[in-house]
Structures are given as C-alpha cells and as structure tokens.
Amino acid sequence: MKTKYVQLPPLPEDLPTELIEIIWLYAKMPKDKRKMFLEFMNENVYGVPENLGKTELSKLLNRTDKELDPDLSEYAELMKKFLGTLYSQACETAGFVYQHYCVEGKSLKEISREYQIDEESLRLILQYYEMTGESIRLREDGYSQ
Fold this sequence. Notes:
- There is one protein chain.
- By secondary structure, the chain is mainly alpha-helical.
- The protein has one domain (17-62, 69-140).
- It contains seven helices and no strands.
- It has helices at 17-28, 31-46, 56-62, 70-103, 108-115, 119-132, 134-140.
- Helix 1 packs antiparallel against helix 4 (70-103) and helix 4 (70-103) packs parallel to helix 7 (134-140).
- The N and C termini lie far apart (71 Å).
- The model has no long low-confidence stretch (mean pLDDT 76).
C-alpha cells in the first residue's frame, strides 16, 4: 500500500492551537469534503447571507435524520470552538479599547506603545467608537481623565 503524505505550508509559531487543528483536519479530508467546506466558507465570507443555507454543507449540518460523517462533525465542532475563541477575544479587545480610548482618553499611539499592541489590531474597534460618537460623548460628560 502506498503511503499518502500531507504537506502543510509554513505556519506562524503563534497560531492558535485550534486553528492548527482545523487546518490539519481540513488537509486530511477527502477532496470532495474539502470542496464542500471551501464552498461553505466562500459563501460565508464573500457571498449573500441568504445563500449560505443553500450550500451542501449547510444542508448536511441541518439534517437531523442523518448521522454526520466523523470528519465533518469533528471539523464543524473545532470551527465552533475557534469562532467562540475569536468572538471572546474580540469582546475583550473592544472592552480594552473602550476603557483606554473612550474612558481614559488615550490616543491609539499611546495605547499601542504602552501595551505593545499593533495599532492596526486596535484601529477597527477604535473606528467603531468614533463612528458611534461614544468616545466624544464620554469626554463631554466628563468621564475621561
């Protein structure tokens, strides 16, 4: 029997463990299942939200009368955990930016320098607070220092 090998590209060393597991499982999947997941991800990221339920994977995940293939089931569970972790980190970052930018009135550069966080990592959340006027409202109410 001929041995099959999976070659992964170089990965950053600080990549979350869950993401490495997801990549590994994806690489080990048969080609037809990888195609199904890729279609689902592309529709999820770039497509119209209403079309997401029309993908083959969505149909499989939503069928309760059929047991899900172990590869698909494990991959879907890992994705849920990973997305939960990302969501949690995004909430923590939003709270961090709110405290230091909106309440304390620090600039993006000050926060970045003081906590050694890349400015780009904080910019999107900061822009949200700017758009909603949250930072200005807090400063006008006298909450910032």
